[in-house]
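User:
I would dearly like some help making sense of a protein record. Take your time, and here it is.
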Amino acid sequence: MPIAFAYTLIALLLVTSFLLTLLILLHRGKGGGLSSMFGGGVSSNLAGSSVAEKNLDRYTILVGIIWFACIVGIGLWLKLAANGS
């Protein structure tokens, strides 16, 4: 496989890693832990989970799947590159 494929996967891995970190940090704390220590436990839950939170969950899962596929793709590329040389 061409080396450009590996560079594309690495670039995509870096972008998805950054996005995944941001998306996870955007989630609301579920109570207890460090989030409540910094004021996250003060806000009240009026309507449960909103549409924005559900969409945030969907985006986080989608980016996580892409991130995982990049990891698997790089691993397969490295295995094929090691066997080919």
Remarks:
- The chain has a mean pLDDT of 83.
- The longest helix spans residues 51-84.
